[in-house]
Design a protein that fits this description.
alpha+beta
Length: about 110
């Protein structure tokens, strides 16, 4: 009886060990978070309809639902203004486009630049 139980455990473990492998037999890594970068500066332009923001000569796509935080509260993308001092965390999508992950708006003299 104990031998049958151990045999079942060994077969189950052998089956599971092959489950998490990719087509080349390597362990599957799953979806990976894109590497993020940050930039601080003042907003040069905003396209609310197109969902983009420009800063320091770079244009970023702002996906729906991106957090825009000012004073600890989410103020939303529609409440950004040109010349606002911000810090943007962004990443490059597979096509090379710059996508915003979040925006922090400085206020009350806490702008580092």
């Amino acid at each position: 009886m104990r031998t049958n139980f151990l045999l079942i455990i060994i077969i189950a473990l052998a089956a599971l060990s092959g489950y998490a492998q990719d087509e080349q037999g390597l362990p599957a890594s799953g979806p990976q978070e894109p590497q993020t970068e940050s930039m601080t500066g003042r907003v040069d332009s905003i396209d609310w309809v197109g969902g983009t923001i420009s800063m320091n000569g770079m244009t970023f796509s702002v996906p729906d639902g991106v957090k825009v935080v000012k004073g600890g509260s989410d103020i939303g993308f529609a409440n950004l203004s040109v010349k606002d001092p911000v810090s943007i965390t962004y990443y490059r999508d597979p096509s090379g486009a710059l996508k915003v992950k979040n925006i922090f708006v400085y206020y009350g003299g806490d702008f580092p630049v």
